[in-house]
Amino acid sequence: MVDPIGTRLVTLGWRERLALPQLGIGMLKAKLDTGARSSSLHVDTLEAFQRDGATWLRFTLHLARRQPLAVHGEAKALDRRTVTDTGGRRTERWFIRSDVELAGARFSVDINLTDRRHMLFPMLLGRSALSGRFVVDPARSYTQSRPSPADVDPA
Fold first, then answer.
1. Average pLDDT for residues 103-113, to the nearest whole number?
2. 111 Cβ partners below 8 Å, 6+ apart?
3. Are 152 and 47 in contact (CB under 8 A)?
4. CA 115 to chain centre
5. Cβ(80)–Cβ(155) under 8 Å?
6. Closest CA relative to residue 125, chosen from 107, 147, 139, 146
7. 49-86 pLDDT per residue, tens
8. Total structural domains within the chain
9. How far apart, in whole angstroms, are the C-alpha atoms of residue 71 and residue 23?
């Protein structure tokens, strides 16, 4: 598929593996959801604190349900926004901005931090992140090769 200015867009499946290099996450399974406006990342713990006059967020997430491997991260808070979930419930969530690596591209995305422990995927990549970059084919999944933790540049 081609976007309005003639750039060829990469076609991805409804689920893919991606990396969040600024958060130290070399590989994470994500659901690509064109019905969701924003992107969400599962966190097990979340704490706001002040640093140099700005609000920062400290969080923990487990990369695999059956493994004790946890990622502890800190990121400057972007803001707090009201998000409406698929059940119509509105909640206020903290947002951060972080780079995503997917399909050979690296781009910045606004991500809300929330409890997704009852969801199949720890990450949901919404249409704001996908728009103008990718096309999602719901009949396909895992179209990209696995990101290698060695390939992730934290800078």
1. 96
2. 38, 39, 40, 41, 95, 96, 97, 98
3. no
4. 13
5. no
6. 107
7. 999 999 999 999 987 666 667 889 999 999 999 998 87
8. 1
9. 8
User: Which CATH number covers residue 107?
Assistant: 2.40.70.10
Q: Which of 95, 151, 125, 152 is nearest to 34 (CA)?
A: 125
Residue 154 has pLDDT above 50, yes or no: no
Note whether residue 58 is domain-resident: yes
Tell me the average pLDDT across 103-128.
Answer: 94
CB atoms inside a 10 Å sphere around CB 51:
10
22: three-class secondary structure by DSSP:
helix
Report yes or no on 7 lying in a domain: no
Question: What pLDDT was estimated at residue 118?
Answer: 86
Q: How many secondary structure helices (H) and strands (E) does the chain include?
A: 1, 12
Give a yes or no: residue 6 inside a domain.
no
Cα dihedral across residues 87, 13, 130, 103: positive or negative: positive
Q: What is the pTM of this model?
A: 0.86
Sole residue written with tokens 């990121």 = 75
Please report where in the chains the tokens 């704490």 appear, as a residue: 47
Whether the pLDDT of residue 110 is over 80: the answer is yes
Residue 45 lies in a domain: yes
Q: Do the Cβ atoms of 29 and 39 come closer than 8 Å?
A: no
